[in-house]
Amino acid sequence: MDRPSDFIANAADLVKRAGPGLAGGLVLALVLFGYIVYTQFRIDVPSKHIAILIRKTGEDIPNQVEVAPSEDHKGVQAKVLTEGRYFYNPYSWDWEVVPMVEVPAGKLGVVVRLHGDDLGYGEFVAKEPNQKGIVQEVLRPGRYPLNPYLVKVEQHEPVTIPAGFKGVITNLSGPMPEKPNELLVPAGKRGVQEATLKPGTYYLNPYTVRVTPSTAGASASTSARAATWGSRRRTVSTSR
User: Fold this and answer.
1) 109 lies in the same domain as 170
2) Distance CA 182, CA 35 (A)
3) By residue range, what is the domain housing residue 202?
4) Which of 131, 156, 181 is the last residue of a domain?
């Protein structure tokens, strides 16, 4: 039995049915067991931390699988425990208490999924939740209960467009345009976009979008050429 509550419920039922002498012994055993549970089974997760559960007994998982598909399987569990007190059988479970992922003010977090299906050739953005790779959505400043065995988080600077400028957007991912030699491509296609950003701060994924500041009065073609000349490639590792 993985949960000590199951043992306590069964023992309490025995106490009700036992005679006075045996009942006293059972009560003492319950007290002793309660002490062991409290000291050995207890997981205290403090504020701003999480606990990672690792199953030691159960069904084996395939070699190519990094995360246990359910609590019946051995290995690292996808679910984490947040702030609070929990009780797990140390024979069946191990655990690690680690700080939550924190993105400080003035930063953004890029999530890289470390498990799942490999992406196709030339792809680097995980479009589905079961894919390994860079996640399109970014994390804004704050704390997040993310399992470090499942994802890693890189910190980057948000994009700031000062007054008197506009931001020229270049999509670094997405489908290729039908006419790749044109300076401006249709919205959503890979390349320089016709729409621009107004002055302000933007939390954009630097692996999927690049923003080049351009003077507000510059023509679309001039801004597009500047963005194209400033192009550069980014790479990211999906290994822990």
Assistant:
1) no
2) 73
3) 159-229
4) 156
- Residue 37's alpha-carbon distances to 33, 41, 131, in angstroms, are 6, 5, 39
Q: How far is CA 167 from CA 33, 80, 198, 230, 239, in A?
A: 65, 39, 7, 13, 33
What DSSP assignment string belongs to 141-203?
SEEE---TTTEEEEEEPPEEE-TTEEEEEEESSSPPPSSTTSSSB-TTSSEEEEEEEPSEEE-
Written in H, E and C, the secondary structure of 144-159 is ECCCCCCEEEEEECCE
Enter the pTM of the model: 0.75
In terms of domains, do 122 and 196 share one? no
pLDDT for 111-169, tens place per residue? 999 988 888 887 889 988 889 999 999 999 999 999 999 999 999 999 999 999 999 99
Greatest CA separation for the chain: 95
Q: Which of 119, 137, 156 is the last residue in one of the domains?
A: 156
Q: How far, CA to CA in Å, does 161 sit from each of 69, 70, 109, 139, 224?
A: 44, 46, 19, 20, 16
49 plus 105 within the same structural domain: no
